[in-house]
Amino acid sequence: MLTGKQKRYLRSLAHNLKPIFQVGKGGVNDNLIKQVGEALEARELIKVSVLQNCLEDKHDVGAQISKGADAHLVQIIGNTIVLYKTSEENQSIDLPS
């Protein structure tokens, strides 16, 4: 689990990021989760945008993606989900303790 201090730090890093995935009418599927997992391995911190035509609740979408990709759900703000996962090969983010 992430501490409040770590989440605040990750939110500050995510502020300038643009969402690289969009969840729409199709909702969350295995392919999306696989791609999010690969993106997290490469970047560690990403944003996912939940479109207006998505039939699922954004909190459910965030929970499904974070569970499927084995990532931490840092924040849901508006229709944007921020996810973090420590990269095994490209670790670039040093979390405060």
TrEMBL record:
Keywords: RNA-binding. PROSITE patterns: CRM (PS51295). This is CRM domain-containing protein. InterPro entries: RNA-binding_CRM (IPR001890), RNA-binding_domain (IPR051925), RNA-binding_YhbY (IPR017924), YhbY-like_sf (IPR035920). The keyword RNA-binding applies. NCBIfam families: RNA_bind_YhbY. The lineage of its organism: Bacteria, Bacillati, Bacillota, Bacilli, Bacillales. Residues 1-96 form the CRM domain. SMART domains: CRS1_YhbY. The keyword Cell wall biogenesis/degradation does not apply. One of its GO terms (molecular function) is RNA binding. It holds the Pfam family CRS1_YhbY.
